[in-house]
């Protein structure tokens, strides 16, 4: 018989005239043997164990990932340094070409200036020689 203090027991009291009192007790129908709960608990335990194994094995993967990240970072830094060095070499080459062009232009300008000065000097010398010749001619032509 079931425990009367059990909260899952359903009691039905039927009262008839004062002479007869009948009481019926019925327990709820059984829901099965309860094995489904054990299966669910076992499944949760297996999933938890698989998760723990995955987490502990994933730790070495994060170390490998960190090493790969560091290697990629250093490779990117090397590529950046190489690109900057090439850019600096190109700029130096252009500056050298500009300096050579400027020197050539300056040399040409100096040569032109020297040629013009020489031409003016030659003209002045010719004018002076002509004036001296004229002066000498006038001196010899002048009455004495």
TrEMBL record:
Q: Which portions of the chain have biased composition (kind: Low complexity)?
A: 74-116, 123-144
| Keywords attached to this entry | Membrane, Transmembrane, Transmembrane helix
According to the record, the segments passing through the membrane are 36-56
Q: Does the keyword Transmembrane helix apply?
A: yes
Top-level lineage group? Bacteria
Annotated region (Disordered), positions in chain: 68-144
Q: What is this protein called?
A: Uncharacterized protein
- Organism of origin: Phenylobacterium ferrooxidans
